[in-house]
Write a structure and sequence with these properties.
homodimer, about 90 residues, alpha+beta, Mth169, Chain: A, three-stranded antiparallel sheet, 2 helices, 3 strands, about 30% helix, about 40% strand
Chain lengths: ~90, ~90
């Protein structure tokens, strides 16, 4: 078993309105940052897990996103996988 | 003026407890994903802005993070800048 670190970006689909992002854009504009054209807000997760290989880790992470971490109806996600240096003990 | 797209990852500092992440880890474990060792939750922002050059865009984004988007006391952020294809009109 190897240990993998992953970064998951969960964002609203482009077709879904993002009122939080719009508010942030207005706030930035009021603060003098008028050059900001758009802000979209999402979630960022760092998940550390052990798996036999990279493909298994990727599959597990996609499952977790579909079942719990993201809402596939309105959100989309991107998983980036990094093998961490230390190999975990077989258990 | 060029148009830049940026991705901002805002995460809790390593020394700060993340109860939301711990809950997610427990939930995943209950769902059968016992190989998950750790989950950390952060924010993900996509900001589109116009600036004269990459250095200016980077400076502006760092300022925005320090002033509004992130809480520098407990959070740290990483800004990734992408020059988007279309150059905006000078205005």
């Amino acid at each position: 078993m190897k240990t993998y670190q992953s970064k998951i970006e969960i964002t609203l689909k482009k077709s879904v309105l993002d009122p939080q992002g719009t508010q942030l854009q207005h706030a930035l504009s009021n603060m003098g940052y008028e050059s900001v054209a758009d802000v979209r807000v999402g979630k960022f997760l760092e998940v550390t897990l052990s798996a036999a290989n990279e493909a298994e880790a990727q599959t597990k992470l996609n499952e977790m996103c579909d079942k719990l971490l993201a809402n596939p109806v309105i959100e989309e996600y991107k998983v980036e996988l990094i093998e961490s240096g230390a190999a975990a003990n077989v258990s």
